[in-house]
Structures are given as structure tokens and as C-alpha cells.
Here is the input.
Amino acid sequence: MSEAAPGLPDSPAFATPERAALAAALRGLIDAAMSVTDLDVDTLGSAAAEIEAIAARFGRGPAGAGYRPRSHGDYLPRSPIVGEASPLSPRLDWELAEIDGRPGIEARGVFGAAYEGPPGYVHGGWLACAFDEVLGIANIVAGHPGMTGRLTIHYRRPTPLFTDLRFAAGLDRVEGRRIISRARCFHGDLLTCEAEGVFVQPDPERARQYFGEPSDPA
Here is the structure.
């Protein structure tokens, strides 16, 4: 099972405007590193040294240094899909929307060079990741958060890079602890792919085992 996006508020201590600006700058750097080909070896070498120096200023150590388990309250800004503080995120901005007559969300954004699969198109694995995220958020909006048990993707046609995409996600039905929701991805009015997710609401004991005691909402 993979974790659906949890429903606690974002942590203001992490999701600051300055960190969002840093993440945006890093996204631009990643996109340039994946796209620009006419760079000489001296430029590449000096850029690598400058980036290493910046990483050292951040106190970077061995892999995983500085990481610690934390509250799910600051998950969304770190999300690899919607996280404004994540340089890995294509930054899908989402908002509440009515989907097929029910509460849901719409998310919009652009996938750049780092997300390429077939030349010119988004890698299907990144689209699956995006569907998992928007479905999880849609479930929370509908009042039925859960963990992903199964995700089925139908790829209808290639999804282009560097163009505005729209994801529409909403709850379909609830069957006991099973939550079934659906999402679609559009390029303009053209459906490129769609997904059905089956999510499971863990019982309280299992939830504590995975995630610890719930945080105090105050």
C-alpha cells in the first residue's frame, strides 16, 4: 500500500515563501540541466562546484542526514506532485471543484523535461504518481481519507510535456472501509489518461502503527 495524502494542515514552519522560492529556483535548474545541451565542460564543472558549495552551506552530510520522521502536517508542501517546497514537484496547483456532481478537486500544472518518458511526452510513471496524489486529496476533500490499495491507469494517448494539463479527481463510492475514486487528465479538452483508485481506511490500531498518535489539531 502507498500512503494517500494526509489531511492535516501544512506546517508553516516548513512551507515558507522563502523555501517555496528556493524550490522554484531548483526546479528551473533541474529543467535546465535536463534540457540545455550546448554547454562546455568548464561551464558544467564550475556549475557543479557552485552547487556543491551551496549544498555544503545547507549542512548536507551523508544520504539521509537531517531527515527525521515527522507529523503528516507538513506532507503536502514536500509532496513530489503538489508540493510548493519540493524541487521534484511539477507544481500541480489544486482547488476544490465539483466533479460529476460530487465534491472533488481540479489540479493544473506543467510537466517539464525532468518528467519525460517518450520524447516530448510525460513518463507514464509520473502520471500514475500524479493520479495517486490527486485522488488521495480528493478523498480527503470528500471526508474519506485512506491508503492506496490499488491504482488502475488507462493511458488513452500520449500526454505532452511543457503544456498546461488539468486533472479532475473525485470520490465515486464508499464500500465499508473501501473508498473508490476516479480521476482524469486533460490536455485542453482532450482526455489523455484516466485512473481508478481503491483506497482503504486503516483501523485505528493500524493507523497508530503506521503513523503514530494523531497530532493535536490545536
Notes: The domain at 1-218 is CATH 3.10.129.10 (Thiol Ester Dehydrase; Chain A). The beta strands are 93-99, 102-109, 147-155, 165-175, 178-187, 190-200. The first helix runs from residue 17 to 35.
